[in-house]
Amino acid sequence: MDAYLAAITIIALIYMLLSLGLTLQYGLTGLINFGHVGFFAIGAYTSALLSLQGVPLALSIPAAAVTAGLAAWPIGLISLRLRDDYFAIVTLGFSETVRLVITSEKWLTNGVQGIPGIPRLFESISVGIGAQLAVMGVLLVVTLAAIYAMRRIVASPFGRVIEAIRDNEEALQALGKDPARFKIQVLILGSALAGIAGAFYAHYITYIVPDQFIPLVTFYVWMAIIIGGVGRVSGAVVGTGLLMLFLEGSRFLRDIVPGVSEVEMASLRIGVVGLLLVLFTIYRPQGLMGDFTKR
Amino acid sequence: MSLQVSNISKAFGGFQALSGVSLEVPTGALVGLIGPNGAGKSTLFSVISGFMPPDEGSISFDGRSLDGLSPAERARSGLVRTFQVPREFAHLTVRENMMAAAPDQTGESLVGLFFRPGKVREEEQRLAEEVAEVIRFLRLERVADQPAGKLSGGQKKLVELGRALLVKPRLILLDEPFAGVNPVLIGEIMERIRELNGRGIGFLVIEHDLEALTRLAPHLYVMDQGRILTQGAPDAVLADARVREAYLGGAV
């Protein structure tokens, strides 16, 4: 049971990094990124492949952040020319393209068979729950660092400008600022966070296949920040925590509710999350951590 | 000559929105631009501020051509516009709205933000004082820490004016500053515009409401159907039969 709790916590922390990245991009800057999972995948494959070539994880994980961040740069350039809704479609297309490339470039990624045997963090600690706790500790430090950086950004002139972009981009241009520079930086930074999350995921699960990187992952992250409250760092943290609690908790629900098969339960789970989203949009659009005075 | 607009034409499909519009705003002047709805005033503003490229014609500001410059570049050169429907940063407070407009802040770069915190703090303090002064000038103290989205139409217009001031402009293009504003606040806004003009800031003001603008601007341009109809002192312009025809639909 302890191992199970540690596992959930690790996955929740990985999702928290994804949520923080999306909070920066959508919550603060208003960029509708529907392709978050693409950067997660790029991070996972980068760090997995490098580590299998013997690169130490202390280098391969930062490399995952850099690769995912670099992949966001051209997407950022595109975003400058597209309206919000088109940008959403392009990013969704991007993440699916990433998945298809991973699936078909077998020489690099082993295609649908995926990459097994990815080195774990703290492989030397092999007994008991020690390794799990160590991974959890590292992830906790990384997540706290990301939260700290985000809070610094929110309280800064940079944060003020990106929120102004979200509220009215043309007005900001009319005041002599160039939204382009800020949007590209935000996309790169948020995607680098997704890349780090992907790297931790790969080294924790130790086996990655293209099917783990479907758009549903992106939308789980969206659900988390909507429930928690978009545009707030605390919202990303609380929303992710609640979503994970629900997704995992509903596994036990099956033991209580009779006559529901595993497959039915999976659909039911998504249905309930959908219902929650609808209810939140109607009754609490600012999310749990949202501030009543705003909006 | 501060702003020089020469022979601007702009068509949308088959509709000629502007045809050969020329106008001038001398340095530090307060010039009005009136005309009935659909005359092309707002289109002209979009072209001057760089949001819309003209089909023909050119624009220069303080002897420098603005052709091909982005809206942001034009604003940085000292030519700042406001919008007909206020475009406040709704979730930022009035204070933050103005602070966001200040140019060249070290803390706007991520490197500056994380590696030069001392300089950022110092600049923020100085900026906060500057903004407090603008807020006092515009009499917005009571709402200074409220989200701008919650303000009344007139207050939003003042926030836009305040933001423009933070850019330290030499000429402000005001798009219908009195539209949807209650009469008491109209008088206030006019007073602020006169004061700023007295400090040397030039204004080009679009207004649909003839009466308000004739009280404010000593020199008027009149537009109708994409052309400049006439220009001159308010009395002379209002006495012009073509102007009355444009406004009253030929019932003179």
Automatic annotation (TrEMBL), chain B:
One of its GO terms (cellular component) is plasma membrane. It holds the Pfam family ABC_tran. SUPFAM superfamilies: P-loop containing nucleoside triphosphate hydrolases. Keywords: ATP-binding, Nucleotide-binding, Transport. It comes from the Bacteria. Residues 3-250 form the ABC transporter domain. One of its GO terms (molecular function) is ATP binding. This is Branched-chain amino acid transport system ATP-binding protein.
